Amino acid sequence: MVLACLLFSLMNASVYAVRWFDAALAAGVISFFRILANLLILLLPALLRGRTKALFGDGRPSLWLRGLFGASALMLSFAAIVRIGPGESAFLTASSGIFVALLGPLVLGQRNSLRAWLAIIGAFSGVSLLFDIDDSHNLLGQSMALLSGLLSALAYLMVARAGRSNPPQTVIFYFCLVALPLHALYFAVFGAELPQAYPVWGLLLLVGIFGSGAQHFMTRAYQRAPAALVSSIGYLAPVLSLVWAVVLFGQIPAQSALLGAALIAVFGVLLPFLR
């Protein structure tokens, strides 16, 4: 999961860097190339080995739901990154760990202690500090990131329900399978244009490689360890994303935002130990 966090943070930084070279490029186009790279990385080895049928797994509903929730979360996450940057958006998207703990009792039958519920409340207080109600542009991006966190949590819980009978490649395949028609619908409504600047193509390749690698290791982590525990380790990703935002793009958060990010990270990490 640590490696997945590093790759996710690099992916977030690459997504935001795309806008530096091509400000007009829609976030949906960036996420489409991310999905396309992911699908090619899955399909090419399967075709060479003649094992494409294995990618479909047992076809249980939780695989399709994981694809729907995960693809929607990805599109919203990328839209949030290009609006408010990789650091702040990553912490709001990282609310997925809080939502996992919040929804775990309902979806997986897990039980939360009183201390866990208090930690969930503390983490959401941090989320509130990240919202900028005076700036509609930022508020929309922040809302997208938070909704992405909720959908990501539902996707993670579906991975847990899909069980170990389906390998990571199958889980990711369904993610791509659902994401393609979602992007087709997006392009039908909003249209799409290809990148104009040559460096953007290289960045899109990096987005695909980093994202595909991160998703593979994350999926394996959620299949091999308790969902809440893995999500707590996942808070390394927003921390690293914030580092890239400051170092590479000069985005220094306000003190209230830093406090909110700290509350999310601290309570998010503590949650699995308070159950």
Automatic annotation (TrEMBL):
This is EamA domain-containing protein. PANTHER family: ACYL-MALONYL CONDENSING ENZYME-RELATED, SOLUTE CARRIER FAMILY 35 MEMBER G1. Keywords: Membrane, Transmembrane, Transmembrane helix. It is a multi-pass membrane protein. InterPro entries: EamA_dom, EmrE-like. Pfam families: EamA. Residues 23-131, 140-271 form the EamA domain. GO terms for cellular component: membrane. The keyword Acyltransferase does not apply. It comes from the Bacteria. It is found in: Membrane.
